[in-house]
Amino acid sequence: MTKTNTSPRLFVDDALKAESALVLDPAQAHYLGHVMRLRVGDAVRLFNGRDGEWTAAIEKLKKSSCLMTINGLLQPQEAESGPWLAFAPVKKTQTGLIVEKATELGVTRLSPVFTARTNSGRVNPDRMRARAIEASEQCGRLTVPEIAAPETLQGFLDQWPVARRLLVLDETGAGQPIAQVLEDLRGGNGGISPECGFLSGPEGGFETSELESLRNLDFVTGVGLGRRILRAETAALSALACWQAILGDV
Amino acid sequence: MTKTNTSPRLFVDDALKAESALVLDPAQAHYLGHVMRLRVGDAVRLFNGRDGEWTAAIEKLKKSSCLMTINGLLQPQEAESGPWLAFAPVKKTQTGLIVEKATELGVTRLSPVFTARTNSGRVNPDRMRARAIEASEQCGRLTVPEIAAPETLQGFLDQWPVARRLLVLDETGAGQPIAQVLEDLRGGNGGISPECGFLSGPEGGFETSELESLRNLDFVTGVGLGRRILRAETAALSALACWQAILGDV
User: Residue B105 and residue B117: Cα distance in Å, rounded?
Assistant: First the structure.
C-alpha cells in the first residue's frame, strides 16, 4: 500500500518504452490540464498493462491534446494472480461499486452473468471498463481487469476452465465457511490449483434449480459468508477481501 | 444466511412480548401500507435489539398509523460478538456505504473519528443511525449497531478500553498481514481476548505523527491489507469481511 509517488497515474493503450513520445487522448489531456492544473514539464505516471509503470513528462499541453515524453521505468510489469469474479448484474450504482471495489481488490477478470432472478436487463461493458480503468489508476495496480462479454449462467458455465475452482457464494447456508475453503486452496489439498473464481448471485439469490445444477459440477464449491443476509454487492466484495487476506499478497 | 421468512422486518423501540399490542410510527405505517401494500391480517416481523424477533399481525392500518398484535417468538435474543469500527468520516455517500456494509458485516459499534486529514467537517449521527436501522432490518440481525458520538482521534483513544485490541488499518505497508493478526486473536496468543475494533483512516491516510502515536500504544496492532492503495471505505469493509470469515460466525 506504500504510496511512492503522488503524480497523476493514467492508463494508456500505447506501448511504453524509454525515451519515446506518446499522445494522450483528449479526455486525459483535459484531466491533466484543467482538473489537475498541470503544466509543461510536470510528471505523470503511465501504465498499459504490459510494459510496467513509467514516469513521463508533459512536453506540450493544449486544450484537448497532450504530448508526453517517457522517462524512467518505475515498476516492471509483473504477473498477477488475482481471482476472477462473475456476478449477476444489479442496479447501475451497485454494479459500478462491484467493478470499482473488485478492481481495488485485485480481480483479474470480471464477468457479468445473467441468472434466472437477475433484475437488471442489460449491462454496459464500456461503462464497466471505464470504471475499472479509473480504479486501476487510483489503486496503483499495473493492469486493468478484463471485462468478459455478458453471458447466461449456462453459457458462462460451459466456458469455464474446469481446472480452475469456481467458488459459488451460496446464500442458503449450505456452503462451507469461506476462510476454510480458501485455506484449503492455499494448502493445495487434493492437488488443487489455488487459482479460482467467485460467482455471486442477484439480489433475490439463485433459484433452487440453479444451485442444484451448480452443486453437481465438479469444479464448483459452495461457500458461505455467515448468517446475515448480505446484499449482492456486499457478498461479492466480502469474498474478494477474504481471498486477498488468505490467498493474495496481503 | 438462510431466509426463513419473507414478511417485512422492522426495528421498533417498544418492548416485544407475546399477545401485546404495539403502534408503529407514521413512517413505518406508510411503508407497510403504501410501499409494501400490506393489509389488515398480514404478517410483519419485529425486533428491538433486546427481546428477540417476533412475528406480528396488522390489526388496524390507517394512512399514518398502524396497530400491530404481537404473536410468536421467531428468534430469541442472542449476545453478539461483532467487532467495533472507528472510521474517519469520508464523503456522505461513502460514509453511508460504510455504515450500511459494516452493519451487514456484524459491527456492534460505529465511531466517527476526526483525524488530521479528515476532509469531512461533520457527520450526521441521526442519518447514520437511520441507515444502520435499515441495514439491520434487511440483513436479519437482531440488533442495530450503536452509533458513538463523533470524537477527535485523541479523545477516541483516551476512552478506548485497553483490554480490547485496536487494529489500525495502516496504509503505509508497515502493518502485519490482517489474516495473521486475526488468526492470532482467535488463537488467544498471549492471553489476548478476541474482542477487537478497527480504526480506518481518511482518504489521505493518517499523518506520520498520528501513526507514530498509534504504534506506541500497547493496545494497538497495525494491520496491512495488501499492496494496492485501497479507498478508505474499501479498506474498512475488507477488514470487516476478514474478521467475519476468520473470527466471526461464518
Answer: 26
User: How far is it, in rounded angstroms, from Cα B136 to Cα B9?
Assistant: 9
ipTM: 0.92
3-state secondary structure of A98: helix
Q: Which domains does chain B have, with CATH numbers?
A: 9-75 (2.40.240.20), 84-247 (3.40.1280.10)
Of A101, A227, A245, the CB nearest to B179: A245
CB neighbour list of residue B86: distance below 8 Å, 6 or more residues apart: B110, B111, B112, B113, B148, B156, B166, B197, B198, B199, B200
The burial of A164, by beta-carbon neighbours within 10 Å (0-12 exposed, 13-18 middle, 19 or more buried), is given as: middle
Q: Is B187 on the interface with A (CB under 8 A)?
A: no
Residue A18 has which C-alpha cell? Answer: 524509454
Cβ–Cβ gap B250/A141 under 8 Å = no
Residue type present at position A152:
T
Residue tagged 482521534 (cell numbers):
B153
Closest by Cα among A209, A242, A229 to A85: A242
Rounded distance between C-alpha atoms, residue B146 and residue B153, angstroms: 18
| Confidence tier at A146 by pLDDT (50, 70, 90) | very high
Under 8 Å between Cβ of A237 and B236: no
Q: Which residue of B has its CA nearest to A242?
A: B242
Taking the CB of residue A18, how many other CB atoms lie within 10 A of it? 10
Beta carbons of A205 and B3 less than 8 Å apart: yes
Give the number of residues written for chain B.
Answer: 250
Q: Which of B140, B226, B246 is closest, CB to CB, to A179?
A: B246
Residue A115 is predicted with a pLDDT of: 96
